[in-house]
Amino acid sequence: MLSKIILVVLAILVVAVLYMKLTAVRVAGSDARALVADGALLVDVRSTGEYAGGAIEGSINIPIQELAGRMEELGDKNGEIVIYCQSGGRSAMAKRLLESNGFTKVHDMGGIGRW
What we know:
Layout: H1 2-23, H2 29-37, E1 41-44, H3 48-52, E2 60-61, E3 81-85, H4 89-100, E4 106-111
Parallel strand pairs: 1-2, 1-3, 3-4
């Protein structure tokens, strides 16, 4: 019985992740570069270790686990923000979190490879 419950929970998690990835509206890399060139804040929500291993020049690192407690670092809630991560899952979560906290111009680029 316990194994069935575990399987159901895992299935729900997989569906949730797929839903977030498939329904996320992402900004193209070229559009993200233009936004940043025009002054948008570029935020990497990967772990500090991932960030140390290579990041987009000019980005700041606020790991997704720390984002809720560090939103003041993002400045004006009406300012342009471009978010990215490794593959798109964390950036989608970050976008939803920021928007639910009043940030109005959050752009999800998805994975770093889209830059």
